[in-house]
Amino acid sequence: MAADGDFSGAKIVLKREDRLLAYLRDDKSGIPFPGLWDLPGGGREAGETPAECAMREVEEEFGLHIPVGRIVWSRRYPSPFGGLASHFLVAHLLAGEIEQITFGSEGQRWRMMTVERFLTRKDAVPDLQTRLADYIAECGPSGP
Q1: What does the domain layout of the chain look like in residue ranges?
Q2: Which tens digits make up the pLDDT trace of 27-48?
Q3: Is there a contact between 84 and 117 (Cβ–Cβ < 8 Å)?
Q4: 4 pLDDT exceeds 90?
Q5: pTM of the predicted protein model
């Protein structure tokens, strides 16, 4: 995938059927969205494309190596804070990959939860709920 100009980072939905991989952020002051359920991803490192950024973060946070070719949806979003844009991507997990997860040092715990549960949680990152809803509105609940 080609780089999409300047951007701050990328978040990714890793789906397996009707479930997605989410993690509970650390509950400490000084970080964005403390104690909320989040999706894999993070800040861009020099020269990365959105896909490369998301997949590096997945490897760092969950120990999974997911090929960028598995991404099925991507959209650029403006920053709600007036900074650089960010990207939101969707890719599928294969059957055995969930068992291969090795949770990194950021966050309290991870879980596979239904897409519907993530969308309706009061303790999930709101912008990511909106972006996930955009994907479902465009691609349907099963997606591409």
Answers
A1: 9-139
A2: 998 888 999 999 999 989 888 9
A3: no
A4: no
A5: 0.91
Residue 89 has φ and ψ, to the nearest 5°, of -125, 160
Integer Cα distance of 106 and 141 in angstroms: 29
Q: Is the dihedral of CA 122, 126, 132, 137 positive or negative?
A: positive
Q: What is the CA radius of gyration of the chain?
A: 14
Q: E strands within the chain?
A: 9-16, 19-24, 37-38, 41-43, 71-77, 86-92, 109-114
User: Exposed (0-12), middle (13-18) or buried (19+): which is 90, by Cβ within 10 Å?
Assistant: buried
Name every residue whose Cβ is closer than 8 Å to that of residue 14 and which is 6 or more positions away in sequence: 20, 21, 39, 40, 58, 64, 66, 91, 92, 93
Q: How far is CA 73 from the centre of its chain?
A: 12
Architecture of domain 9-139: Alpha-Beta Complex (3.90)
